Amino acid sequence: MSAFVLPPLLAPFLLASFLIELTPGPNMTYFALVSARKGRRTGLATVAGVALGLAIIGLVAAYGVAEVIQSSPVIYEALRWCGVGFLLYLAWEGWTDGGDVAAADKDGADGKYFLRGLVTNLLNPKAGVFYISVLPTFIDRTRPAAGQAVALTIAYVGVATAVHLSIVLLAGSLARFLKDPGREQVARRFLSAMLALVAIWFAWTTAR
Q1: CB 195 within 8 A of CB 91
Q2: pLDDT in tens, 57-89
Q3: What is the Cα–Cα distance from 127 to 133, expressed in whole angstroms?
């Protein structure tokens, strides 16, 4: 990575990425919902999907395609509202879906949550905005930009994944406590309501 990024630029970028990931958002709330209900294994599958989504968007942005999306109001709005709708769907499903948490862990649904993590980030225009507005400020203009963008993308995905894993491990520790149907329903509906609020906040903050 040092071949692409000057050391003075990498440390500030890592710090900025860490602070950005600590800001509550769709990923953080959804990780808590999934991990508390389904357990750590399913939470980890979701993290893997999110990491892949962030990597794809970052690599696409590195080669300029995300800038085209950002410059097109129609494409941007379509992605934005698809993302909002998908988050609301996940919140509704979490609110209405009961069932036994232990059984859910054994139903082979990890792949489904991997795909959901992936789709959630591919439909998140804020990720693209980060890659084409924040990331370029850490690029040394005297060196090839594409290589640096790829290196910084890898660094950002690494920081984001570390934060996401921490959330999963913390929330996953509640899975056993939530095996009680009453406690599980209260926690599930609280987190689902929070996810719905995050979707509304997401729609507000990404509006142009």
Answers
A1: yes
A2: 888 877 765 566 556 778 777 767 877 787 787
A3: 10
